[in-house]
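Supplementary Methods S3. Complex input for the zinc ion-bound model.
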Amino acid sequence: MGVRLLLARPLPGTVGEARRVTHVFPEPGGDAAQLDAYCGASFGAGELELLDGIRGMPCEPCLLLAPPPDGQLDGGAGCPDA
Ligand SMILES: [Zn+2]
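Predicted complex, serialized as structure tokens:
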């Protein structure tokens, strides 16, 4: 089982339109009042619009930092001292 991921973006009016990118969040346990995206941005739960897919602009740092959606972390990236 991998980490479950949430996709969400800030609600209209909470940030500038250009910053309304779709962030990736690790699913919080319980009812967290705050969500921290992989890129380091944090939002109150009431500030986010949950999405079932990426809409509009994705947050590129989030995409780079989030684990693969299927949870398969093979750890095979990189081959040090080959
Ligand atoms: Zn992000």
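The pocket of zinc ion is lined by residues 23, 37, 39, 41, 59, 61-62 (CB under 6 Å). Helices lie at 60-65.
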